[in-house]
Amino acid sequence: MVETEEIIVDAFAALLVRKPEAYDVVVATNFYGDILSDLASELSGSLGLAGSINANAETGLCCAQAQHGSAPDIAGKNIANPTSLILSAAMMLSWLGEHRRDEKLNRAGACIAKTIDDVLDDPANRTRDLGGRMNTDAFGHLVAQTIANETVTA
User: Fold this and answer.
1) What contacts 118, CB < 8 A, 6 or more positions away?
2) Structure pTM?
3) Per-residue b or e along 95-109, where b marks 16 or more CB atoms closer than 10 Å to that residue's CB
């Protein structure tokens, strides 16, 4: 049985700040969901840390995107945190694996998500928004290389 609770969005925002660990899944309209997911990702450390997919159970379609919006002020500067987009791709692989019953896709998604955790464990590997010095390209290359090393040793 799934326990549900209906909460007005402004009250939920306050509850999310007060006790974020109390919520596993939040179902909201696109507008409210966008606002609440920004809040939740900031609570985790940065808007750049949350992966995101939009999936439709009726059509069976899924779209992966960075959880945050565009950042025109840093466009082309190689300083954006790519974690959100990488985790979004991992989520989509896992979603595809589940819907296609393809364990390889599930493992790929899990591998990418674990690699992000492992890479971010070392403060030297963090981007500027997380207090580090790594740029977008270097972080992406490190994640890709870590995955490549994992698959060779696995």
Assistant:
1) 146
2) 0.82
3) bbbeeeeeeebbebb
Give CA–CA dist 67/45, Å, rounded.
14
Distance of CA 6 to the CA centre of its chain: 25
Alpha helix positions (H), the chain: 9-18, 30-43, 83-100, 103-121, 136-153
The 3-state DSSP class for residue 56 equals strand
Contact 79, 128 (CB under 8 A): yes
Terminal-to-terminal C-alpha distance of the chain: 37
Q: Any idea where the domains of the chain sit in the sequence?
A: 1-43, 49-153
- d(CA 26, CA 143) in angstroms, rounded, equals 29
3-60 pLDDT, tens digit per residue, is 889 999 999 999 999 999 998 888 888 889 888 988 988 888 887 888 888 888 788 8
